[in-house]
Amino acid sequence: MPLPPDWDDDERMNFMFSDFKENRDVDTTDWDSKTDFWTALVLSSCRHQGSVCVRLQELNHSFRRKEKSPLGLAKVLQSMSRCGKIQRESEFAANVDCGWVSWGVGLLLVKPLKWTFSTLLGSSSRVHPEESFVVIELVKEKAAELLRVYRGSEFASRSVLSFQELCTLSSGVCADESTLCMALLQLQRNKQVLVSLHEGEKIVKFCLPGQDRVSPVSDVDIGIYQLQHSEKLLGERVEKLGLEADKCREEAKRLLSEGKKSQALRCLRGRKRVEKRADNLFAKMETIRGILDRIAQSQTDKMVIQAYQAGVSALRVSLKDVTVERAENLVDQIQELCDTQDEVNQTLSSGVTSADEDMDELEEELKSLLDESKSEPIADLPDVPTNRLQPSGESDLSGDLLSSLPDVPHGLLNITTEQLEEELNQLTLTDSGFQLQKMTSPAKR
Q1: Residue ranges of region Disordered (predicted)?
Q2: 142 class by beta-carbon count within 10 Å (0-12 exposed, 13-18 middle, 19+ buried)
Q3: SS (H, E, C) the chain
Q4: Cβ atoms within 10 A of the Cβ of 33, count?
Q5: What pLDDT shows up at residue 177?
């Protein structure tokens, strides 16, 4: 059990192990400090042990330190009871259902009834050392965990289970049968579980997923439970007969190896009879499975029909005020509004025209601007050459090329003949592997 860090502090533990004052008003700090310390330790101890119940006698033994037991644990339990953190086991069971007490009184309330009924009648406020209290926080945790384990198990498809099956299923959740019953009582409070007796056997019905509360155990539930129980018994019987048949076969082999042929034949005949019985039981088990499948299908069909009915009812309510005439009227109104909007948009997009403007005058001015923008030809530039350049190899490259070039313009271009000749001498034209040599002007020749 985990202990608080100051458990080894003798001075603080002497204070915590001392008894409470007679009246809380004398020293509220002293009283509340001890109550908070022991309340947290009680909850931690129960959670560590996996228990949902506490007893004063067990707490005195668990919290014993240096041969001393706490003196104020009885007042701590009374304080926790007043705050609703714990509740007497008898009250917890009685507040659920009288039926629970009838089948669980021998299991849950294991202590003598002389103090149980006096507690129910309210004639005793003293905490009995062996009286059991239920820790409400922990029992709620156990109940939620038990429901989660059930819905994640192979039994989730079955709403009704036997109490023994549930004990086996909850062995990893509830430390003992009493803890399981407390968790079931809490689930009963939450309307998620219902327990009833069938032919002297306790059966537990769980709330199906999607339902707010569990429904009462019906004849259909009892019938399904009986079929499932019969299927289980037949399965166990078939398995047992299979083992018996294998045993007969092994015995026949042994007898045959020993030379006892007649005895070996008797064993084989016995094996055939066992196998025939197993086949008959297996056929009956298959019939039961078929019935269960049909029941499951009928329940699904019933659920679908109920969903259809709910859908039809909802649709009828939704279409209560909807008629064809009303729909046509609304469509006409929408079309009329759309036409009005189109007319407004067309009017706005046409723009605003001034009355003083003369359109003919504007067009005439635009035409004059276009005439003025036309560019005049440049007279001083040479004409575009019209002679075709001949490809290489047909004539002398230098003569034809120079003859096809236009005359050098004279006039506004501020450049002399010598400058043009110098620039021409620097040009090198290459065509088909031939290179033009520097040319000299006629003036220099």
Answers
A1: 373-409
A2: buried
A3: CCCCHHHHCHHHHHHHHCCCCCCHHHCHHHHHHHHHHHHHHHHHHHHHHCCCEEEHHHHHHHCCECCECCCCHHHHHHHHHHCCCEEEHHHHHHCCCHHHHHHHHHHHCCCCHHHHHHHHHCCCCCCCCCCEEEEHHHHHHHHHHHHHHHHCCHHHHCCEEEHHHHHHHCCCCCCCHHHHHHHHHHHHHCCCEEEEEECCEEEEEECCCCCCCCCCCCHHHHHHHHHHHHHHHHHHHHHHHHHHHHHHHHHHHHHHHCCCHHHHHHHHHHHHHHHHHHHHHHHHHHHHHHHHHHHHHHHHHHHHHHHHHHHHHHHHHHCCCCCHHHHHHHHHHHHHHHHHHHHHHHHHHCCCCCCCCCHHHHHHHHHHHHHHCCCCCCCCCCCCCCCCCCCCCCCCHHHHHHHHCCCCCCCCCCCCHHHHHHHHHCCCCEECCEECCCCCCCCCC
A4: 14
A5: 86
Q: Residue ranges per domain, the chain?
A: 5-217, 220-296
d(CA 5, CA 41): 12
Laid out side by side, the sheet with 86-88 consists of 53-55, 132-135, 86-88
Question: What pLDDT digit, counting tens, does each position of 274-293 carry?
Answer: 999 999 999 999 998 898 88
Give the pairing of strands 430-431 and 434-435. Answer: antiparallel
Q: Which amino acid is at 113?
A: L
- How many angstroms separate the CA atoms of 431 and 397, rounded? 8
Quick one: which of 221, 229, 213, 107 has its CA closest to 162?
Answer: 229
| Phi–psi pair at 292, nearest 5 degrees | -65, -40
Cα radius of gyration rounded to whole Å, the chain: 53
What's the whole-model pTM score? 0.58
The tens digit of pLDDT for each residue in 21-58 reads 877 777 788 888 888 898 899 999 888 888 888 888 88
Q: Is 205 helix (H, G, I), strand (E, B) or coil?
A: strand
- Report the C-alpha gap between 111 and 18 in whole angstroms: 29
Report, as ranges of residue numbers, the positions in the chain whose pLDDT lies below 70: 1, 96-125, 351-358, 373-417, 420, 423-425, 427-445
Phi-psi sector, 176: left (phi>0), alpha (psi -120 to 50), beta: beta
Cβ burial of 58 (10 Å; 0-12, 13-18, 19+) is middle
